[in-house]
Every structure is written in structure tokens, then in C-alpha cells.
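wait is this the right file?? whatever heres the structure
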């Protein structure tokens, strides 16, 4: 069964608006633009269209518009979100496993490293009605910021 064309258009427009506003909110930082682009792509590719809430997307658009407008709280939150995501992806891709039993300890540390960050994003989403991604970025075969 195919999805109605109207719903597809709404999702496409939401993606375009989120992409445009996230680029404005990064204020020309190439690295941040690539991270924002990759996060947005990952969110739209893994998410289910039936689970998307238009009110949350609208609130996120307002959040990004405010982040682009002035260097206030929204901009600092967005900047830190992208900074942590960049370091998370770099940590994952530059990770080299040593030999021996240290693998188990390192795996445990890496699994729990971003728990408080993900919980903070989850609570921010709940209280402000946003749809900022809080899942891990792992899985991409290329480093962020590289084509």
C-alpha cells in the first residue's frame, strides 16, 4: 500500500524547512552544517512517517529559527548538540580495539558514555515538545564532514 501524496509532501516540506533552518542556525560553520545534515538525514531515514507529530516539527522549526536569529540559549543548545554529535561520531570511527580483556571494559565504557546526554535531550524534547534526535549516530561508514 502506498502512502497518500499529501502526507508525503508534508514530510518533504518539513525536511526542507528543517534543513534550511539548521544551516542558518550553524552560522556558516562547515563542520556543524555537515553534522546537522547527517543527523537530519538519519532521523528522516530511520523514522516512521506515521510516528511524526506536526506540532513537534513546528516547535522544532521555531527552536531552529530562534537559534539562527540570535546567539541566545537556543543557539548554544543547538551548537552543543552538534558538537557532542561530532565528537561521538569521531570517537566511533577512530576507535581501535586493543588486544586482550580490555575490549569488554572499553565496550562498556563506550556504551554508557553518552547516556546522560541522551537523557538530557529526551527531557528537552518532552518539556519543550521538540523532536531533536537523541539516538546514537553509529552506523555510517564515512566520517562526519567528509564526502
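ok assuming it is, sequence goes like this
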Amino acid at each position: 500500500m502506498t502512502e497518500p501524496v499529501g502526507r508525503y509532501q508534508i514530510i518533504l516540506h518539513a525536511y526542507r524547512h528543517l534543513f534550511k533552518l539548521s544551516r542558518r542556525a550553524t552560522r556558516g560553520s562547515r563542520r556543524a552544517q555537515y553534522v546537522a545534515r547527517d543527523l537530519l538525514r538519519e532521523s528522516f531515514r530511520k523514522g516512521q512517517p506515521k510516528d511524526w507529530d506536526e506540532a513537534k516539527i513546528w516547535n522544532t522549526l521555531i527552536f531552529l529559527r530562534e537559534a539562527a536569529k540570535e546567539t541566545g540559549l537556543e543557539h548554544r543548545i543547538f551548537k552543543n548538540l552538534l558538537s557532542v554529535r561530532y565528537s561521538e561520531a569521531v570517537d566511533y570511527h577512530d576507535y581501535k580495539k586493543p588486544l586482550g580483556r580490555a575490549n569488554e571494559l572499553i565496550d562498556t565504557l563506550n556504551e554508557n558514555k553518552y547516556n546522560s546526554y541522551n537523557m538530557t535531550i529526551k527531557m528537552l524534547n518532552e518539556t519543550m515538545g521538540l523532536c531533536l534526535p537523541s539516538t546514537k549516530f553509529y552506523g555510517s561508514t564515512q566520517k562526519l564532514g567528509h564526502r
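Residues 97 and 104 are 10 Å apart (CA to CA). so i think its the right one actually
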